[in-house]
Amino acid sequence: MKNSDLSEIPGKTSSFLPWGDLLSFFKDYHKFKQKKIKKYGELYKVRILNRVISTLHDKDAARYTLVEHDKDFNSKEAWDLILKDLFPNGLMLMDGEKHKHHRSIIAEAFKKQPLEGYLEMMKNIVPAHISTWNDPNPKMFPLLKEFTLEIALEVFFGINKNQQFTKINQAITDIVDASSALPIKLPFTAYGKGIKARKYLVTFFKELLPERKNNPKKDLFSILANAKNEDGNSLNDEQIVDHLIFILMAAHDTTASTQTSFCYFLAKYPDWQEKLRTEAQEFYKEHGDNFTVKDLRKLEQFGLALKETLRRYPPLVSIGRVATKNLEYKGYNIPEGTHVSVDIDQNHHNPEVWSCPASFDPERFSKERSEHTKCPYTYTPFGAGAHYCIGFAFAEMQIKYVISKLLLSHEWSVDPEYKMPVKPVPLQVPEDGLPVRMKKIKR
């Protein structure tokens, strides 16, 4: 696509540097974005590597792109450049009937009965793990990242921490790092290491696949290996492994990101920490360990605080698409083949939609205020439309359970003036790991 195809859209895309705006984009995404908005407005174009991308920041962008014109935009082409060698056949890299077909089979692993099975497995992991947290000055992100991986390996794959945990953890780290690196396929590059990590995981899961097919358990691996949709269709071995690797990455890193942000806000706002601790104490006094996924949804204050956490720090700050036909958006031509980026983070902080958007105010999601209903699809932490996150219910269940159990046994804090420094791409994570002061609660 030539730059002239987007001549109507503001922005400068010429550069002597072959990577265009890539380095500035990753170095300080928020500063880069605000500079562009100030200069060009809420719709502008940039160049990332060999792609000219139209970036949409206004409150109607997600609804237009992800919902109303979902069939007119392609997800696969938008993500191919950086993800096709790392996650081929991941749901993000599928569209149309193929996406619908694969999603209908994978959805079997996220229905009510499997979710209840996952929760029961978590009950054997979470309390025991949290009881070992004795460090008075931990960094929450690496702590939660390792914990989330341990849960994912056992619940999704039936693998305990002693089975090649370190190698798998390193492989996932390498793949995530590769997803934000220049796509240069050399062994010593971050991208090259990510491709090598993928090969390791493919071999590892293929060796386990026959057992999961013949002796299925309650883990996601077993369910997916034997899953059939309503039409009786199933996945072949290669597709099963490809989806497993993508699900492992998506469930692991996005959940760790959100749990860390949640812990930050509870440390920053001790009144909310105490409010949720009280709710958790009442919940477990009533249910003990005999509760279901549906019961966890009764943690209303948790629900409000989690929604506000996802508003302030959605794991993914933007979603990419490619136009499959000539379109028009608010007077601007969007030619076929145009790469479009919808800024989720900007929508979540739009003052036209949210009161005091930079504040932490969970009550904005209460029935009385319902700010998230003011303008549809300005709150989209899990995406929207056909590619809405298939694992959102699992993520919500895990986060509520982990944080509620943590609140029963620990309290943590940060200095009042502390503000978590966030690296927003590829996923929002704290640059300093989120150091906190933590102590066990005496019973």
Automatic annotation (TrEMBL):
One protein family per Pfam: p450
InterPro entries cross-referenced by the UniProt entry: Cyt_P450, Cyt_P450_CS, Cyt_P450_E_grp-IV, Cyt_P450_sf
CC cofactor: heme
The keyword Secreted belongs to this UniProt entry's keyword annotation: no
Keywords, ordered alphabetically: Heme, Iron, Metal-binding, Monooxygenase, Oxidoreductase
Family statement drawn from the similarity comment of this UniProt entry: Belongs to the cytochrome P450 family.
Identification of the protein by name: Cytochrome P450
Organism, as annotated: Aquimarina rubra
